[in-house]
């Protein structure tokens, strides 16, 4: 039976929370060396693909990635060529022609190809390293559609808190394989991570100020430091929405996602039993 195509929402406010688990048994499949290699892959390919990365967390048997695919038409042919060269390396000679550029433009703006590239390259490296064959990653990656703004900020906080809730560290910035830890070590200068979360109250803030606001927000949601009483526990009770929902965001955004999903599935109005409470069936939530 052929796979059902993955549902993507062609909306400038749509980001994606990607989760992918290993197929190998145990909770410590990914050690320090594996995590470093996977992080370097994500960092490099994020400069190749048309993607804006907001955050990540690489754990012992899975990883989280929060990102938004950028519109293909905002990149010139010269920029596409530059990214192809970055992908293959300067030593490789490439003959560019219109059809090739068109093909790559489509590829570079595709979330599935981006994540697939990360996972396949890691699998080949890992299998060579330990002299094994077979699948490394379990099934397809999971993706949750996240509206930019408040929902994106909350989802990013959930991702940053993964190593804390797993009991690995007491503070997320002490874990170098999550984005808060990465930002703490690399600073807020030029890197592959973005803090343009779509929050109007952050618009006139510097990168350093945004980083401090993010850290403060994560601490509050995680019950770290001195947050409001009960904030951390309430947030933990809601974390399943960040991994099990189809879409999270405002009511308008989620209703729009539900309508697009209905069209994607080819549901007709007469099939009332199938389209009734579509948002609930798809496990969509409002933040």
Automatic annotation (TrEMBL):
The protein's matches in Gene3D superfamilies, at most eight in alphabetical order, are given as: Transposase IS200-like
Which GO BP terms sit in this record? DNA transposition
Domain of life, source organism: Bacteria
Q: Which InterPro entries match?
A: Transposase_17, Transposase_17_sf
Molecular function as annotated in GO: DNA binding; transposase activity
Q: Pinpoint the Transposase IS200-like domain residues.
A: 11-162
Give the protein's recorded name: Transposase IS200-like domain-containing protein
Natural source organism: Thermodesulfatator autotrophicus
